[in-house]
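Quick one: examine the sequence and fold tokens given here and explain what the tokens say about the fold. Here goes:
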Amino acid sequence: MQGMFLTQKLIRLGRVLDRVRGSHHVLKHPQRKDVLTIPHPKKNLGNGLVIAICRQAEAQKRSCATQL
């Protein structure tokens, strides 16, 4: 899964794009202080990294990582 697709899915699930630093997109939760960093939007991310980001986002695996 490419980083941009994961970023778009997390935005649809309620995250807000806070900033972009180089090749990393930083998403934050609108009500809590936690942030997620998604690396390399045009490169494929490993399955373990996608699962870890979804787990950190507290999203269900079906809604977050459906293309694994």
